[in-house]
Design a protein that fits this description.
Shape: globular
Strand order of the largest sheet: 1-2-5-6-7-8-9
Structural class: alpha/beta
CATH class: Alpha Beta
Number of strands: 9
CATH superfamily: NADP-dependent oxidoreductase domain
Largest sheet: 7 strands, parallel
CATH topology: TIM Barrel
Distance between the termini: 12 Å
Number of domains: 1
Helix content: 25-40%
Order of helices and strands: EHEEEHEHEHEHEHHEH
Length: 242
């Protein structure tokens, strides 16, 4: 916050609500008005921390929000969004339920996460979507095909997560020490990893020309793709954030 970073992206299922409580503690006093709080809802998490499903049924949204407001100790959320889209529930019904919370003053703006282009249009037809969250990096450029053009057309900002490709572009990755939580990701598969590491080495040479790290280069690349794109920085330490 002191560095001018205002966009705080969390979810009610991150550490089963503990992340919200930490942010709530940090935002006590005058800090709340400086922050843009973005919260995802709907993922179901077991006591062991693993996600086992999704529940974005409209009648449950008020309940999710009530607990989020309590944990964060705030009176409203700046951006509220379902964690994923449930194909069995029309997105229009989900957005309408969230818009009721906007009308009640508990939510300022509505967002979406990883929906297809058609769903984005449908949702925006019910209530203006402020932001939509997708994975986007030098290693994953799929949203350039249709999502980015549609978002620009509709005036929707894109929050880009995974800009460092799960650490691969942060140069903290070791081939011999794959994070178990990333083992299923194709970037790290036995058939791909050697080629991907050689690409990172090529990026290192480019980054040297600009006197920056590979991580900085990867983030700057995302920033340069459009003013409507906001890279989401998943720092785990103060030094990483700096």
């Amino acid at each position: 916050m002191d560095a001018g970073i205002a966009h705080l992206n969390t979810a009610d299922f991150y550490s089963s609500g503990h992340n919200e409580m930490l942010i709530g503690e940090a935002l006590k006093g005058s800090q709340r008005e400086k922050a843009f709080l973005s919260v995802k809802f709907g993922a179901l998490v077991a006591p062991d921390g693993f996600m086992y499903g999704l529940d974005v049924r409209p009648k449950h949204i008020k309940n999710y929000l009530a607990y989020t407001l309590k944990r964060l100790n705030v009176e409203y959320i700046d951006l509220y969004q379902p964690a994923r889209s449930d194909l069995d529930i029309p997105v229009e019904e989900v957005i309408e339920a969230v818009s009721d919370m906007v009308q009640a003053g508990y939510v300022k703006h509505i967002g979406l996460t990883q929906v297809d282009a058609e769903t984005l249009r449908k949702a925006n037809s019910v209530y203006p979507i402020r932001m939509v969250e997708y994975q986007y990096s030098l290693f994953n450029r799929k949203i350039e095909q249709d999502i980015l053009p549609i978002a620009k057309e509709l005036g929707i900002e894109v929050v880009a997560f995974g800009t460092l490709a799960h650490g691969l572009l942060g140069r903290t990755f070791s081939k011999d020490k794959v994070d178990p939580s990333n083992a299923h990701i194709t970037l790290f598969s036995e058939n791909n990893i050697d080629k991907n590491l050689s690409l990172v080495e090529a990026l290192l040479e480019i980054s040297k020309d600009y006197q920056m790290t590979v991580a900085q280069l990867a983030i700057v690349w995302v920033l340069a793709k459009g003013d409507e794109i906001i890279p989401l920085i998943g720092a785990r330490t103060v030094n990483q954030l700096k």
